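To: structure subgroup
Subject: Chain for Friday's discussion

All,

I'm putting the inputs and outputs inline so they're searchable in the archive.
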Amino acid sequence: MAVDPVRDAAVSVLLRVFQTEAHNDVSIDRTLRRTNLSPRGARFMTHLVYGVVRHRLLCDHVLQPLCDQPLDQLPLSVLIVLRMGVFQSFFCSNVTRPALVHTGVDLAKKRISLSMKDPEKPVAPAQPSVGSRQGSTAKKAAPGGKSGPASKPVAGPRHPPAAKPNSPAGLSAGGIKLKWTELW
């Protein structure tokens, strides 16, 4: 499966930025030194990284009604690929929609398969976006460390059980569903 090296480099930079809160410019410079991108590819990668970071809330706003599960439950690498697709759709007039969808699917497949090869290092779940106020399902301990009525899970949004989100079966069995045709 051939993956576009420019978009793949952009996903790597965005993963570093969103996971470790690294600075955009430092991560971009490090990636440009390590990869052999053409000047045009380097400009496009930089445009993608800065654009996705700048328009993250807009991308999440567009994606939320199209996804069957909350965005913060998607693997971060898949969420970044989806955000890049929305950004390219709205702000990159030179990218055709078939190319956008094709490269997005290839990138998501690559990132999921990478996480499957190293089961000790699963794909990190996405960080909640600013303004995300969805219910938590974490258990709260009662005062004094004893379990009691306060140890019940807090009611949150209900979603149908799905296959493991990091497995290829999870992609087709409801783990990650996106109505691509509604986006465009």
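Points worth raising on Friday:
The chain has one domain: 5-129+162-183.
Residues 97-117 form the longest helix (21 residues).

D.
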